[in-house]
Amino acid sequence: MQRQAxxxxxxxxxxxxxxxxxxxxxxxxxxxxxxxxxxxxxYDRAAMLSNLANNYIIPAYAAYTTATDxxxxxxATFNANPTVASLQSLRxxxxxALLTWQDVAFLEFGxxxxxxxxxxxxxxxxxxxxxxxxxxxxxxxxxxxxxxVAKGFQALDYLLNGTGMNDQEIVDYFSIASNATNAKTYLLxxxxxxxxxxxxxxxxxxxxxxxxxxxxNSNAQGSSVSNIVNELTYHYEAFVRKGxxxxxxxxxxxxxxxxxxxHVEALYYQQSLPFAxxxxxxxxxxxxxxxxxxxxxxxxxxxxxxxxxxxSSGDPLTATINDQINxxxxxxxxxxxxxxxxVTGNTQVVLNTYQQMQILVAYFKVDMTAAxxxxxxxxxxxxx
Amino acid sequence: MPKLISILLLLLASTSWAQKGILLGNVSxxxxxxxxxxxxxxxxTNTTYTTNKKGHFKTGQLPYGTYxxxxxxxxxxxxxxxxxxxxxxxxxxxxxxxxxxxxVEIEGTVNKSMGSMKRLRAIDGVLISQGKKNExxxxxxxxxxxxTNQGRQIYSRIPGLNIWESDGAGIQxxxxxxxxxxxxxxxxxxxxxGYDISADAxxxxxxxxxxxxxxxxxxxxxxxxxxxxxxTQFGGLLNFILxxxxxxxxxxxxxxxxxxxxxxxxAFVSIGGTKDTxxxxxxxxxxxxxxxxxxxxxxxxxxGLNLKKQLTEKTDVRIEYTxxxxxxxxxxxxxxxxxxxxxxxxxxxxxxxxxxxxxxxVTINHELNAQTKINSRxxxxxxxxxxxxxxxxxxxxxxxxxxxxxxxxxKNFGNETRLLHVYQVKTTPWALLLGARYYQGYNLSQxxxxxxxxxxxxxxxxxxxxxxxxYEFPSKNMALFGEHIFNLNEHFSITPGIRYExxxxxxxxxYNHVITDLAQNVILxxxxxxxxxxxxxxxxxxxxxxxxxxxxxxxxxxxSQNYRSINFTDMQIQNPNFRIDPNLEDExxxxxxxGIRGFIANKLNYDISLFALLYDNRIGTTIEKDPVWFxxxxxxxxxxxxxxxxxxAMVEVDLWKWITSDSSKFSFRVFGNASFVDARYxxxxxxxxxxxxxxxxxxxxxxxxxxxxxxxxxxSYQYAFTERHYSDATNSEQTxxxxxxxxxxxxxxxxxxxxxxxxxKLEAGVNNLGDSSYFTRRATGYPGPGIIPSPPRNFYVALxxxx
Lengths: 384, 803
Known about the structure:
A: mainly alpha, 2 strands, 68% helix, B: mainly beta, globular
C-alpha cells in the first residue's frame, strides 16, 4: 500500500512537472521586442479600419450611388424626350458615374461580394450581339451571369456611343429605329440595375461597417486587413494593370503578343485613359487613408506600413508605393486617347506604361503583404 | 515435504550412472499466448536455448540431474525455475508474467478488466517496440458502433487524436495525432497486416481505404518513433491487424446485421477456421444508407480473404486479397451562417465520389534457426478514386454547367523483408532487427470537365485533351533499416536505430493553360508540357531508452528523426505563374517522447508522456518577384518549421474491483485521457504564418468514459471534448467562403450497450447522445468545400450470430 501511495505521488508530480514545463514553453513565444510581428500587432488596426470605412468607403459608395441615381434620372429624361442635347447630358452622367465607379471598384469584399458587384457593373469587352438580341427579343434576365457582358457601364457605352455614327443617329436608334421602344427599356433597365446595386451596397455598408471595424484582431485570412489588402491588390493586378492596359496592349495575347484594341474600357466612347487615371488616383487616396470628401489625410495602409517600418530596397515602402503610383499616372498621362489606336500605333509606349504598372504589383503583392503578414488568397494564373 | 523428495531425487540422480534425457518445454504469457524468442539459460551447463514460434524449446541430451533454468523475455518478468531431469524426457510449462500490463480475464464477460487497450510486446513478431510510445486497441473488446467505424469510440483511449468526421457512415478515416492534419489519416504510415494501404505511401499517403472495424482484430499505433522501422510520416505507424480464422475449429461463421438511423443498413459476414496446416479467413461487408443530410446516400462493398499455410514447422506462407468499392453522393459544405441556421441542408446535388481499392499481399515467415527469423512481405495495390461535381466555393450557387472530374489511379508494389536475430549477452537477451524495402509506384492524376447532369457518371468530356491537367508520377523507393535492443541490465535498455532512404520521383504530364479577358472570353488556350525529377537519399536515426523500476513502473524516452516525402501534388504545377524550387526537399524533423507508464495494483493502467515534435522544411508556397521585370510568381519551396509540444496522458482504472475483489463478476471501469498541445510556426518564410498557431491543433483534447460490465452485459459511456482551434496557418477566424476559419469547441457523448448469450450477441447504442450540433472540419475541396457538419444524435442496433 505504501508503494502505491508513492506511485500516486510520483504520478502527481509528473503531471505537475509536465504542466509547468508546458505552460512555461507556451509563454516564451510571446514577448520578443525585436520580432517584427510585434509591430504588426501593436498597430491600432481598428482606428485605420474605422477611418477607411467612415471617411472613404461609406462616402465613396454614397457618391457612387448618387452618380448612378443621376444616371438613371438622365436615362428617364432621355427616354421621355430623345434629343441630341438630352443624349449629351445622359452621356456626361454616364461618364461621371463610371469615373466614380473607379473609386469603389477595389472594395470587392463584404456587401459588394454578396452581389458580385464588379462583375455586374463593369465587364468588358461588352457583347454587342447579345445586347442587340436582348433588345430585339425584349425578354432577358439581367441577373443571369451570361448577361453580365450585356449590361453595366460598358453596355451603356455601346448604347450611348456605339449605336450610331453620330449623336443624331444614336438618338434615332432610340426614337425612330424599329426596336426603339425596346432599346429605351433596355437602357433604363441597365441604368436602374446599376443604381439598385449601388444603393444596395451603400445601404448594407451602414450595417457592415461595425463588423468591418471590429474584425481587427489579426491579419489572418478573412480579417478586414486581409480583405482590403487582397482585394486592393487583386483589383489593381487583374482589373487595372491587366484589364485597362495589359490586355489591350497585347501582353496577354498568347505567343503573338498582338495588341487587342477592341479590349479597351469605354471602347465606343473612345476615351479610356481618364478611367485608368481616376483608378490610380483612387487607389492612392485609399492606400493613404485620405478622406473621400475633403482630402484630409487619415489612417490608411500607408500609415500601417510606416508603423511597421516596412522598407523596400532600403527606402520606406510607403514612399516607394506612392512614388510608383505617381509614376504610373505620369506614364498614363503621356498616352493619348483613343487608347484603341494608341495600342496599335504607339505600342511600345503603352508597354512601357504597363511595365511601370507591373512594378507596383510587386510592391503591393510581395512587399506590402510580407510587411503586414497578410496571405494572398486569390489565385493568379495568368502568367506574365 | 516436497523439498525432501527433491533432495532425495537429487541424491538419487547424482549417484545413478550417467543416464541422459532432454528437457522439452513451452513458454507462454498469462493470456496463453506462446512467446517466441524467449531465452532459456541453463546455469549448470552454461547453455542458452530459444523458443520457436509456438513457444517451444528443446535441449540437447543432458545428464540426469537438477537444473536451474533462467527464463527471460523482454517485457516480461524473468523467472528462475529448478527442474529435475530424471527420465528420458521431461516436459515443462512455463508461464511468464508481463511486466507492464497484465490482463485479467473476467469469467463469462466479453470485457477484460483492463479494457480494450494493451501495449505491444517489446518484440512482437518482427517488430521492435522497445522504448517507443505505442498503443494497441483490441477491437473485440471495444463497445462501439462498429458498422460506422465510429472513430470517436474506437480510438477513445488514445490521447491527442483529432478525429475528422467527413460522413456519417465512417467510410473514410480521418485521424491525426500530435497536431498533424487528420485529412484521410495521411500523416500516419497506414498499413494493414504490416503492408501499405494508402494510395501511395510516399507521394500520396491518403487512406481512401481502411478496413471495416468488424474485420479488425487490433489496431497498433506506434507514435513518431516508428519512423526508423516504417519510414515516412511524422505521426508514426497505424497498423490494422485483421481477424484470422479461429484455431479451434475448421469452420466458424460470424454474421452481423446492423440497422441504424438515417437508413443505415450494414451486413457483415465472415467465415474462418483451421484445418490441418491451413488457416483461412474471409469477410464480406455491404453497407448502405442515406446519411442525415440530403444528397449524401452511399453504398459500400468491402471484402477480404486470407489463406495461411504452415509449409513446414519453420515456414509459413500467407496470401491475402482485399477489395473495397464505394460510391457516395457528396452533400457539399456549408458556410458558417448556413451551419448555424440549419446544418441538415445541402446546396450541392450533383457531387459524387467513387473509390475502388484492391490490395494483394503474400507474406512468408521463416525461421532460420531458433534465434533468427525472416519475414518477407510482397504487396501490391491497384486502386482508383474519382471525384465529380461542382467544386466552386459554397457561397456561390451551382451554375449547373459542366462539372469537374478529378481522378487518380494508383498502381504500386513492393517488398519489405525483415530479419530478427535474438541472442544472449550475459543473462539478458539482445535483439537485432535488419530490414530492407523496395517500393515502386505509378500514379496517374487527371482533372478535366465532365457532363453537366446530376448523374454519377465519371467520364471526361475530352479524355485526350483535358481542360485541367494530366500528370503521371512514377516513383521508386529503397530503404535499409536496422534497430537493436541492448538490454544493459535487468532494468535498463537502449534501442538505437537507423534508416537509409533513397527516393526517386518523376512528374510528367501537361496542364491546360487558359487566359481570358475580363469578360471570360478565351484569349489563349494551350497545353503546357511539364517534366520534373527529384532524386534524393538521406539517413535518419533515433534512439530509445527504457528503464524499468519494477514490474509495474516503467520510464521511457526516445528521439527519432522523421520525414514526410514530397507529395505528388507538390511536384505539379497548374499554371505558368508557378515555379517549384529545384532543390525542394522532403519535410523533415523529429519526435521526442519522455513518458512514464505502468500499472498500479492490477487495477489502474496509465501512460503519461511529454512529447515534442519539430516539423521542419514544411512545404508551402510564397509569392516572389522577379528582380528585373517585377513579375510576381508563386514559388513552392520549404517554407517554414513548426514546433509542437505537449502532454499526452491516459489513465484507466477498474474502480469496482479496486474496492471489492478481483474475482467480482461486476466491473466498473473508468478512463480518462487528455492532451495539452501547443503548436506554433517558427522561422517561417511566409510572414503570414510566423509565430501563428499550427492549424488543426486543438490545445486541449479530452475524453472520459465509463464501462459497467456484469457477466455478459456491458454498458459504455463516453464524453469527448475538443477545444476550439484554427483551420489555417494564418489563424483565420472566419472567411466568406467558409474554407478557413475557427473550428469551435465541441463535446460529444456516446453510449453503447452489448449483451452476449451463447452464440448470439446484441449491440445497441446512441452516438452523439446529447444531440450537439458541431463540426470537426472545414474542407478546401472534397467533400465540401466549406464546413462539413457532423451527424446529430443517431441510433444503432446490431445482432451478431457466431456459429
